[in-house]
Amino acid sequence: MTSQTQGPTVDARGLSCPQPLLLTMQALADGPGPLTVIVDSAAAAESVERALSREKRKALVVQNGGETIFNISPK
Amino acid sequence: MKNFFASTKGIVLAGLTIGLGAAVLQKLGNPGNMGVCVACFGRDVAGSLGLHRAETVQYARPEIFALVIGAFMAALSSGEFRPRAGSNPLTHFLLGALVGVGALIFLGCPWRAMLRLAGGDLNAVVGILGLIVGASLATRFVKKNFSLGAAKPANLPLGLIFVLFMAALLLLRVMFPPVADQPKNGLLLYSLQGPGSLHAPLWASLVIALLIGFVGQRSRFCSVGAVQGLILFRSGHLMLGTLGFIAAAFIANLAFGQFKLGWSGQPIAHSLHFWNFLGLLVVGFGSALAGGCPGRQLFLAGEGDGDAALFSLGLLGGLAMAHNWGLASSSAGLGPNGAVAGALCVILIFAIAWSGLRKPAAA
To answer: In this prediction, does ipTM exceed 0.90?
Structure first.
């Protein structure tokens, strides 16, 4: 786990489709601030990555074992 | 993105591959508009194992086993094999069983609905509308924080159990192949007539289904996810895959002379609109709550997802019971107890959906 997390965290590990993306989108809709999203499946990571590209949000992506951590920058 | 199949081109290619593969398997001997069907083939597997006694639908379909093994190989090769379980396992099993009954009221899983459409069977349109409504209903619950809970990482054996089970069944199919005019060989039962007697050669079923399993796992191809992606996120990503699937099957059907437009006289289909709609509504609703359509559940099971494996085993059980209890439809229409079963499936899935609602976590 990174110690550099910023803002609220969405922990979507172990959740099935479409919950990881839904929780991420709900958190993004809450405001333009920073957000950390943790997922543990490649399918979820890809869907979050595509959504961030659609929403034009930048993120630092860290791979940690099977987990992917998105440190999403403020808008 | 490192994974080509996660790109737009990738998901379309996956859809094209699966649709074309299915049409080719029909050309090579699989039943009409049933090149690949997770429900029908699961039912045939259940019959071959003696889990039901409907003699026209018994065949150990290598496609089912190969879909899982293909997904397993894809997951291994990409480092995505990840044993996990514990997201309300029994509920996953029950959802699989209910989806199995719904699919046999319609006569096909969502893949077969698309294949029926691509073969000109207009009844499929009614079913697909039901699928869309069912997946939309699930979406409403997911928005209100419906969840079966998070799965936890599990140990290696748990992730391998279902894959090894499929490999063992494939081994049985190879050891005890169908023999002309014999209803049984070794441990396996075989239909002498009806859909169960129609099948592509073993090698073709294996090669094509392994390929489908591979691209399916890599691309996350999912018919229910396609609907949910559009509704929830206005993302057409997975929908492009299903459109590719239908387009490839349609063009191949035209080329192979397998296209016949109409409502009546369609292979292994009936024209009871209400029940076609309701059957796939159950499938769409139940699968979406479980995290993916029946085909996607097989791919997930191949990745080591124990809950998806339980969904698939529940599906197998539901499909078998659908024939034991007269819930399954046929070309002649609804099974004797199909109407009651359809209504019960809807009630039970709503009950699961309500029971899975959680209060939003405190911020």
So the answer is: yes
